[in-house]
Amino acid sequence: MNDASFAALLTTEGRALLDEVRGTDPARELAVATRLRRTHPAELVSAALAQARLRQRAAAKFPAADAERMFFTSNGVEQSTRATVAEHRARRLRALGVTSVADLCCGIGGDALALARAGIRVLAVDRDPLTAAVARANAEALGLAGLIEVRGADVTEVDTSGYEAVFVDPARRTGGRAGGGRVFDPEAYSPPLSWAVTAARAAPFAALKVAPGIPHEAVPQEAEAEWTSDGGDVKEAVLWFGTEPGLVRSTLLPAGHTLRGRGLPDPPVRPLGRYLYEPDGAVIRAHLVAEVAEEVGGGLLDARIAYVTADAPLPTPFASRYEITDELPFNVKRLKALLRDREVGVLTVKKRGSAVEPEELRRKVLPKPYGRAAMTVFLTRREDTPVMLLGHPAP
Fold first, then answer.
1. Cβ atoms within 10 A of the Cβ of 385, count?
2. Contact at 8 Å (CB) between 59 and 67?
3. CB–CB of 120/100 below 8 Å?
4. Strands 373-382 and 385-393, how do they pair?
5. What is the dihedral of CA 109, 114, 115, 118, to 10 degrees?
6. Order of all β-strands in the sheet with 165-168
7. Mean of pLDDT over the chain
8. pLDDT digit string (tens) for 175-186?
9. Helix, strand, or coil here: 363?
10. What is the secondary structure of 242-287 as a DSSP string?
11. N or C: which end of the chain has fewer CB within 10 A?
């Protein structure tokens, strides 16, 4: 999509066409396009159908009612913050008393929308003219234009001194494109992390979005680091300034459970207990497995693997709990025979510290259902020895 085709979508004809193609089945696109091109410009029809596809994809990140009214670019859909995560960040800023935010590298405006809905005035900045135009259209589409000013500019040249907080979401792909390769060096972000940290230090409050895999040693001492997951999937890490320097936390959405680091030493390695706890990915990224182990009275199966074992089924929102029935040396033939003997028809394979691919193993040991029983198999290691732990989710 280019500037001209997007501008055409904002016309009366373009908006009517968007309404007409809403929810078009991809299998019917050619027939729909052929029919509409008899009465509308071909380029406009193509743009409307492409936008319909993007809106369908965006429904995985945004509420359906919003996605149907918003505008997207292909990069914007992939790179935009999930609405639940953006809303969590907006709530945190609002709780800090923030009433104005400079949203730098705003993309199609997902974070700006969440901030505005929290009652925060937003300056949303993006250097790409088309992306900025899409963000502006989204603010208008959702009735938030009164709180969001969108500016097409280089974020490094924007004066943010009039705002109580800055939020920076730098591009973390080569060329800043969704199709580009991921960038792991924080100084290769666009703009670099060092620039974002400087901008953060100049504001009363700041939140800098970084890749979840950021090395802990790259976190500035005066920053709080928060790793966030949504529905069990790790989504992002954010460096907070003006909050609690040195704090490490993990937040699990949608419930909003937060685990705060307490500087605990590594948990001890112990024999396998009756229960296995699989910490959430955000907990692991935040290096807070020790906090989970203390919470459930457990220890590690292996010093280098984030599986916690315990004797009691203590509740925790920060890990999934499984009851373990068997511990066996890794052996494909033995596992296949065991599944057949126990009439297993549904097999879940998880791994940590194993080179075996779960789906490949599942095909080998369960080529067809042997019955109706369900089982979970953990592929891991203990003291460098590959093992299989068999069990099932424990309530």
1. 10
2. yes
3. yes
4. antiparallel
5. 160
6. 148-152, 121-126, 100-104, 165-168, 205-210, 233-241, 224-230, 248-253, 257-260
7. 94
8. 544 445 677 788
9. helix
10. SS-TT-EEEEEETTTEEEE---PPPPPB----SEEEEE-HHHHHTT
11. C
How many Å apart are CA 182 and CA 171, to the nearest integer? Answer: 9
Tokens of 116: 């505005």
How far apart, in whole angstroms, are the C-alpha atoms of residue 318 and residue 227? Answer: 12
Q: Which residue matches tokens 């979401």?
A: 169
Summarize pLDDT for 52-104 with one digit per residue, the tens: 999 999 999 999 999 999 999 999 999 999 999 999 999 999 999 999 999 99
Write out the DSSP string of 41-104: -HHHHHHHHHHHHHHHHHTTTS-HHHHTT----HHHHHHSPPHHHHHHHHHHHHHTT--EEEEE
Token digits of residue 4? 């001209």
Backbone angles phi, psi at 321, to 5 degrees: -110, 135
Closest CA to 55 of 28, 90, 80: 80
Q: Which amino acid is at 233?
A: D
How far is the C-alpha of 154 from the C-alpha of 4, rounded, in Å?
Answer: 22
Burial (CB < 10 A; 0-12, 13-18, 19+), residue 258, is: middle
What are residue 295's phi and psi, to 5 degrees? Answer: -65, -35
Distance separating alpha carbons of residues 130 and 103, to the nearest angstrom: 17
Look up the pTM and report it: 0.91
